[in-house]
Amino acid sequence: MKAIIIDDEKQARISLSLLLKEYCPEIEIVTDCENLPEGVKAIRRHKPDVIFLDIEMPGHSGLELLDFFDEKEVSFAIIFTTAYNEFAVQAFKLSALDYLLKPIIPDELVASVSRLKKQKRDQFSILYENIHSEKLDKIAIPSGTDLLLLNIGDILYIKGEGPYSEVFMTDATKYLVSRSLKNFEDVLQNDRRFLRIHRSYIANFDEAVSYSKSDGGWLNLKNGISIPVSPEKAGLIMEKTTVVKR
């Protein structure tokens, strides 16, 4: 697979090239570029299979790359790279095809390259629409060598444990994700449906049917599932609920 690296830091380009050469020999770096305009020209000239794209660069954000191409022109995958957690969250929030946090860990690089082979064509459309929309409809989560595109409204609740989270869907399926609950909280913070009700749980409040104050507090969901509510979060639930007085 042919690849282009777009990053304003020379050392970052060199480091990624060396990692790819050692751990992903199937990737051929055809060129590297220090800014987005040069990168756009290189893409049109070399027609690569994948772009390793820095998000934060002087002059242009890497997220602006898609503005230079029509959907029919895009035959390449994108793996965003960034040294900043907030931009990693932004990439995750936008259902990015994939991203790597600098300094890049070889195992994560290998996993991202493996996922390239399974990426679907419609992921470009989802990413483009999310970048230009205030409301998110889908979210991309890594699952082994796959990148799953989930409808946000179909998430029942999310349970976090350290650096991992379990995403439980309304159809009873669940996914183990190598993202912390805080990451999900940051992504969903502007979505009125989701509320962190416990240090280990985020719930889709649209799926809630009742709140029980017994045994410390429980939120009961449509599927007959109950999840705990922290005492300090009980007030947030009451704020989102109209209580009928007798």
From TrEMBL:
Q: Which UniProt keywords apply?
A: Phosphoprotein
- UniProt domain Response regulatory: residue ranges: 2-117
Q: Which superkingdom, per the lineage?
A: Bacteria
Q: Which residues carry this modification: 4-aspartylphosphate?
A: 54
Kindly give the InterPro entries that the UniProt entry links to this protein: CheY-like_superfamily (IPR011006), LytR-like (IPR046947), LytTR_DNA-bd_dom (IPR007492), Sig_transdc_resp-reg_receiver (IPR001789)
Keyword Phosphoprotein present in the record's keywords: the answer is: yes
Q: Which GO terms label this protein's molecular function in UniProt?
A: DNA binding; phosphorelay response regulator activity
HTH LytTR-type domain segment(s): 139-243
Pfam families per the record?
Answer: LytTR, Response_reg
> Per its record, how is this protein called by name?
Two-component system LytT family response regulator
Q: Which organism is it from?
A: Chryseobacterium defluvii
